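Researcher: We're reviewing a set of sequences before deciding which ones to prioritize for further study. For each one, I'd like a predicted 3D structure that I can look through quickly. This is General stress protein 17M-like domain-containing protein. If possible, include the structure in token form so it fits the rest of the review sheet.
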Amino acid sequence: MFRRRGLSLPSVPKGDVLGTYDTYLEAQSVVDRLSKADFEVARLSIVGNDLKTVERVTGKQTYGRAAIAGAASGAWLGLFLGLIFTLFTPPSTQTFGIVGAALLIGAGFGMIFSIVTYTISRRRRDFTSTHQVLASNYQIIIDPELTAKAQQALQEHPTA
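Model: Here's the predicted structure for General stress protein 17M-like domain-containing protein, in token form for your review sheet.
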């Protein structure tokens, strides 16, 4: 990493490749094994290679789905604001009423906002999806001074 005026600029870790794994969980498991063997894991990095963006289509977007999703997210925001509001008011019998009203108002505004947004973008995007960034493989990069010690620790502490 380079340092400039107290800021560290991001860079790809350099060193030896301790191992290459198909999944992040496999690489994480190796680091976990090293940690349990009291190895200095702060000098390791897990690097994902050949990144790909995967968008999985989950269904067709409809006014009903937009309304439900908007109401749900608005309700969470309303609940949060209602709870924050009650922290700054004296305790009373109306506390639950305030939280409930904030929840309902948040759900209503969330629903309206989501329906309006869906109406505006309807012809451009008429489906719902999730996004993920995935790597083809994951490498554990290690300080060259510690490679032999890490390999020995992995041999002495096989998987359970």
